[in-house]
Design goal:
The chain has 535 residues and is mainly alpha-helical. It has 23 helices and five strands. Pathway: Protein modification; protein ubiquitination.
């Protein structure tokens, strides 16, 4: 193309001096900036009859083609290279050097094509520098599209798709347009502010159109951006199809979400929960549906959703446990909604139950009016066998946990202690032989004494557990009419407190200040003259 340009007749003489004057003036400003750094140039680049004294480091760090040419030059100090075929000639190369030196210049419709071709020719890719010149050009035209009306913006993007533009590359453009067009919505507070009906309708149309233009590829849009669109859709009361589309997209990328992405306000004042629990439940169900199916699910054969990758289940489990803990303190959260959401968190996704126990404890603390049967239903969400030792020690002393759950916790903890003590002497020689064969016999003898003490504590704990089971059976028996003079049974707290003291000795790092010993002041003894009276 350059050769064809050389064979054409020269333009009018009045145009050439003006262009050369502008080019030389710009080159002079660039050279002045370079020399102001008091660093001598170490490379000379000749482009289209013009010579540019430059610095190697700044060029090779962004231009892969110049890096190859410099590596072929053997001169150690000063290098001279010639690039005769740069698209746009010396004018385009000067803009490229300005970008390499960090000098601001304006990208316009007149120079953007020339600049893009020059960047491609000089191999200014992301491998050389993150955020290289081609990306700056893309950001420029994305900014230009944000000033269009929504109908013109839609037709422009559809035309770009029809001409082979990748949908994935349209993601940043759509994100920038949505952020500018939906500016001013209070989507992070609770409740709706009064808006002008015309402005509200216009933003609703913009949002529904933007959602319809979103790429179908997974990871084309971030979860945080999808969460922002969903908040706006709930705030503006868009169509159900628009909301369900966003919920499905968030479900596919739920493994990348953080807790703030799920804390969507309900935007109501009718006594409902602070956060929109139903929406998050549908998002989680979408994730589980695609996780189970493990196949592509889409609207058509061309534009389809891609299912989430396997291995996100554990990350999603921790995320939902944190979400349950966040919403558990809401006094308007019913037990049915809390349990239904907790049951969706797969047990396979939970390595331990500490997160679920924390959410349950917060819920029981925020809802003290629950009866014993309801508290047992809430505690059934966790597997007591997966609790850590710290959580077991806390649960055994927690007055909000039902006694049946405490029994399970103590049983599994007693079983864990038994396995630990019995497993320490298996698979090797006897302890006596190992003690004689090591010089640190005193330390090993101390370890044996510790195991013996743990064994005694284990036996004592087993007896206490059996007594608690017997007491629990007595409590669960139907009430029997007894004379008023008969002594009432001992309260259940005495057994829990005694076991808590045992656990306190086993786990000295736990705090037992919150456990108050039972006082016997409430027990009364009938006087002697009325002890055998039937009246």
């Amino acid at each position: 193309m350059l050769g064809a340009h050389q064979e054409t007749p020269p333009p009018p003489s009045s145009a050439i001096p003006r262009k050369e004057h502008l080019l030389s003036t710009a080159m002079k400003r660039t050279s002045e900036w370079i020399y102001s750094q008091e660093v001598p140039s170490d490379i000379e680049v000749k482009v289209g009859g013009s010579s540019f004294p430059l610095h190697k480091f700044l060029l090779v760090s962004k231009c892969g083609y110049i890096r190859k040419l410099v590596s072929e030059v053997n001169h150690p100090t000063t290098s001279a290279i010639e690039i005769p075929d740069v698209p746009g000639g010396a004018e385009a190369f000067e803009l490229v050097t300005k970008y390499c030196y960090g000098i601001n210049f304006e990208i316009t419709t007149e120079n953007i094509a020339m600049l893009r071709c020059a960047a491609e020719y000089l191999e200014m890719t992301e491998d050389s520098t993150v955020g290289n010149l081609p990306n700056a050009i893309v950001d420029w035209w994305a900014e230009e599209l944000t000033v269009l009306r929504i109908d013109t913006f839609q037709r422009t993007l559809m035309a770009m798709k029809a001409r082979g533009f990748k949908q994935y590359d349209l993601g940043p453009v759509i994100m920038l347009y949505a952020q500018k067009s939906l500016r001013g919505l209070d989507i992070f507070g609770r409740g709706r502010k009064k808006m002008d009906p015309k402005d509200e309708h216009e933003k609703r149309v913009i949002l529904e159109t933007v959602v319809s233009l979103l790429p179908r590829e997974r990871n084309a849009m971030s979860v945080s951006f999808l969460s922002m669109l969903l908040r706006a859709a709930i705030y503006l009361e868009t169509t159900v199809a628009c909301k369900l589309d966003l919920e499905k997209r968030m479900g596919l990328q739920l493994g990348q979400a953080v807790i703030d992405d799920l804390l969507i306000p309900s935007f109501t004042f009718d006594g409902d929960t602070v956060f929109d629990v139903d929406t998050v439940q549908r998002i989680l169900m979408n994730y589980l549906e695609h996780e189970v199916n493990g196949s592509r699910i889409g609207y058509s054969t061309d534009d389809d959703y891609i299912s989430p990758p396997h291995g996100d289940m554990e990350r999603v489990g921790r995320l939902m446990e944190s979400y349950l803990a966040e919403i558990a303190s809401d006094p308007n959260l019913t037990i049915a909604r809390f349990i239904s959401l907790g049951e969706l968190v797969s047990e396979q996704a939970r390595v331990n139950e500490d997160g679920m126990y924390r959410a349950i404890d917060i819920y029981l603390k925020a809802h003290p009016s629950l009866i014993d049967e309801e508290r047992k239903k809430v505690c059934s969400l966790m597997d007591c066998q997966k609790l850590s030792r710290e959580a077991c020690a806390h649960a055994a002393q927690n007055e909000r946990i039902p006694v049946q759950t405490v029994v399970q916790v103590l049983f599994y903890e007693q079983q864990r202690l038994r396995d630990a003590t019995s497993g320490s002497f298996t698979g090797g020689e006897s302890p006596a032989l190992s003690l004689r064969s090591t010089p640190c016999s005193t330390k090993h003898r101390g370890g044996t004494d510790e195991l013996s003490r743990l064994q005694r504590e284990n036996d004592d704990l087993r007896m206490q557990l059996l007594r608690m089971r017997m007491q629990l059976k007595e409590v669960e028996k139907p009430p029997v009419q007894i004379p008023s003079a008969q002594k009432p049974p001992l309260p259940k707290k005495s057994f829990i407190n005694s076991l808590s003291k045992k656990l306190g000795r086993l786990y000295p790092f736990t705090h037992t200040d919150s456990v108050k010993p039972f006082s016997g002041k409430g027990r009364t003894k009938p006087p002697k003259d009325r002890r055998h009276s039937i009246s």
